[in-house]
Amino acid sequence: MRTRLSDHVRERLSTFGLMAPSIAQCAVGAGIAWIIAMELLGHPHPFFAPISVLICVGVGLGQRLRRVAELVIGVSLGVGVGDLLVGWIGSGAWQIALVVALAMTVAVLLNSGALFVAQAGSSAVLVAALLPGEGAGGLDRMADALTGGVIGIAAVALLPASPFTIAAKHLSGVLDALSTVMEQAAEAIEKRDVDLAAEALEEARTTQAAVEEFEAALETSKEITMISPLHWHRRAALARYETAAVPVDLALRNARVLARRTLAALGEASPPPAALAEAMREVSEAALLLQLELGAGREPALARQALLAVAARERPEGLGFSAHVIIAQLRSVVVDLLQATGMEHEAATEALTPLDEPRDRQPR
Q: Which residues form a coiled coil (predicted)?
C-alpha cells in the first residue's frame, strides 16, 4: 500500500512539473490582462480579459491560436446577441433562455467547435444576467476578450513550457505501452500461459488513449516552437517526434492484433515456438531504445540497428495458423518502428527476411 501511494505521489508531482509552466502562464497573464484592460483601456470591470487568458492558455494541451480566434469571435457573438436582445426584452429567466438559445444557435450555424459555441452561450448569459445595468458596451467586452487573447499568446511565447519535454513525456508513455505488450506476449509464449496472454491483450486494448494524448502533446509542442523564439532551436529535435508519430501509432495497432493472435495460438495444437518470443522481446527492447534516444535528442541509430537485427531473423518452421499471423504482425511492427527511426517505408520493408514459399507447394 505504501509503495502504491509513493508511486501515486511521484506521478502527481511529475504531472505538476509538466503543467507548472502553464499554471504560471495563466496566473501571470490573467493579472497583466486585468491591469491593461483597467488602466490602459479604462474598463471598470474587465473580467473577460483574465478569463480570455485562462481559456487561451489553459493547463492542458491543445491548439492555442485556434482557441484565441474561437474565444474572441465567440465572445463577440454572445455579447452582440445579448446586448441587442437585453436592451429590448429586459432581463429574467425566459429572457436568458432565449438569449442563450439564439446565441448558441447562431454559433452552431457558423462554427460547430465546442469552445466557440460554449463561449457564445456563456457570454450571452453574463450579459443578460449580470451586466445589463452596468453600462459597459459590447465593444468594450469584445476588446477585453481580444486583450486577454493577445496576452495569453504573449505568455505562451515569453513563459513557454518546454515543447521537447511535453512531446518526450507523452511519446514515452506510448512506447512504454508498446514495450509492455510485446514483453507480456513473449512471456506468455515462453510459459504457455493463457492468462498472461489475456493480460497482454487487455494491456494492448488500453493503449489508444496514450496515442491520442501524444498526438495532442505534439500539436502543442509544434505550436510552442512556432510562437516562442526561445524554442525555435528545438524544431530539429521535435521533427524526430513528428516522424515517429504515425509509425508508432501503427505499431501499437499491429501489436494489438499480435496480442490477440498470441492468445489464440496458445489454444492450438502447435503453440508458437520460443524463438518467436525471443524476437518479440527484442522488439520490446528496441522500443525502449527508441524512447531513450529520442529523449536524449539523438538520431535513434541503436534502436534502428536492433530492429534491423530482428528483421533479418529467419522465420521458425512448423508453425500453426495463429503463429503465422503473429509473425506477420511482428514483421509489421518492426517495419513501423524502423519508420519511426527515420527509415523510408520501402527500405524498412526490404530489410525483412523474404518469406519462403510453403514447403508442400511444388512449382508448376
A: none
Could you report how far apart the first and last alpha carbons of the chain are, in Å?
67
Mind listing the domains of the chain with CATH numbers?
A: 2-158 (no CATH), 163-350 (1.20.58.220)
Alpha carbon of 74 to those of 27, 77, 106, 298: distances in Å? 23, 5, 10, 43
What is the predicted pLDDT for the residue at 360? 43
d(CA 328, CA 330): 5
Q: Which three cell numbers stand for residue 275?
A: 524463438
What angle (nearest 5°) sits at the alpha carbon of residue 98, between those of residues 95 and 101?
150
Give the number of other Cβ atoms within 10 Å of residue 320's Cβ. Answer: 16
Q: Burial of 56 by CB count in 10 Å (0-12 exposed, 13-18 middle, 19+ buried)?
A: buried
Residue numbers in the chain where pLDDT is lower than 50:
59-61, 133, 357-364
* Of 201, 211, 217, 202, residue with least CA distance to 176: 211
Q: Closest by alpha carbon to 122, among 140, 144, 100, 101?
A: 100
- Give the pLDDT confidence of 226-246 residue by residue, as tens digits: 777 777 777 777 889 999 999
Tens digit of each residue's pLDDT (9 = 90 or more) over 253-263: 999 999 998 99
Report d(CA 188, CA 8) in Å as an integer: 28
